[in-house]
């Protein structure tokens, strides 16, 4: 049975959305096309009608994951308009976010994997990271405009690193200590 163009476009969006979550959970090489397509409720044969390659899907899914993360940052800042930077810090460096492998930050989940991917995947991450830095920079500039870009880079690096480290240790107290130390360090960086 032939699929309409509208249904094909919807299927493609479904695959991208599912892949953005499953790649964050399993890594780019930790899940095959068969399981990705099964997660989207489609057959593996449908994949080749939608994407040129798994790397093409990885690039699209990475872009979607970064967009999703940006929406979560926006929601955090909207919930706390008087302290948007504090809201982002509190959200990002929370135990809840650290535990969200499928829906959490794609940089923390896939950063080292993305470094081994092709230019299209890296471009999706670079665009997302640039957006993170722009948002952080605009918030930091309100607090202190001196060296805004460098501070935004330090804040993002610290936050991502803390989430990665909190995820790779078994000891929940140590995991929380990484998040707490990063929260303190980021707040000190912003106010310094």
TrEMBL record:
Gene3D superfamilies for this protein: Homeodomain-like, Tetracycline Repressor, domain 2
Domain (HTH tetR-type): residue spans on this chain: 9-69
Record carries keyword Nucleotidyltransferase: no
Keywords: DNA-binding, Transcription, Transcription regulation
Keyword Transcription regulation: yes
Residue stretches spanning the membrane: none
PROSITE patterns assigned to the protein according to its UniProt record, in alphabetical order: HTH_TETR_2 (PS50977)
DNA-binding region in chain numbering: 32-51
Pfam families referenced in this protein's UniProt entry, alphabetically: TetR_N (PF00440)
InterPro entries: Homeodomain-like_sf, HTH_TetR, Tet_transcr_reg_TetR-rel_C_sf
Name the record gives this protein: TetR/AcrR family transcriptional regulator
């Amino acid at each position: 049975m032939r699929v309409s163009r509208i249904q094909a476009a919807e299927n493609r969006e479904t695959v991208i959305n599912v892949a953005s979550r499953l790649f964050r959970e399993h890594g780019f090489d930790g899940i095959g096309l068969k399981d990705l397509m099964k997660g989207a409720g489609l057959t593996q044969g449908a994949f080749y009608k939608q994407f040129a390659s798994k790397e093409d899907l990885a690039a699209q899914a990475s872009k979607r994951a970064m967009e999703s993360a940006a929406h979560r940052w926006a929601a955090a800042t909207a919930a706390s308009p008087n302290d948007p930077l504090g809201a982002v810090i509190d959200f990002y460096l929370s135990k809840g976010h650290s535990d969200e492998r499928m829906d959490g930050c794609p940089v923390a989940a896939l950063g080292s994997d993305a470094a081994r991917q092709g230019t299209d995947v890296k471009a999706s991450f670079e665009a997302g990271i640039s957006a993170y830095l722009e948002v952080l920079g605009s918030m930091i500039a309100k607090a202190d405009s001196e060296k805004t870009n460098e501070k935004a880079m330090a804040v993002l690096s610290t936050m991502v690193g803390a989430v990665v480290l909190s995820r790779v240790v078994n000891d929940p107290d140590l995991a929380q200590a990484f998040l707490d130390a990063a929260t303190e360090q980021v707040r000190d960086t912003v106010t310094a």
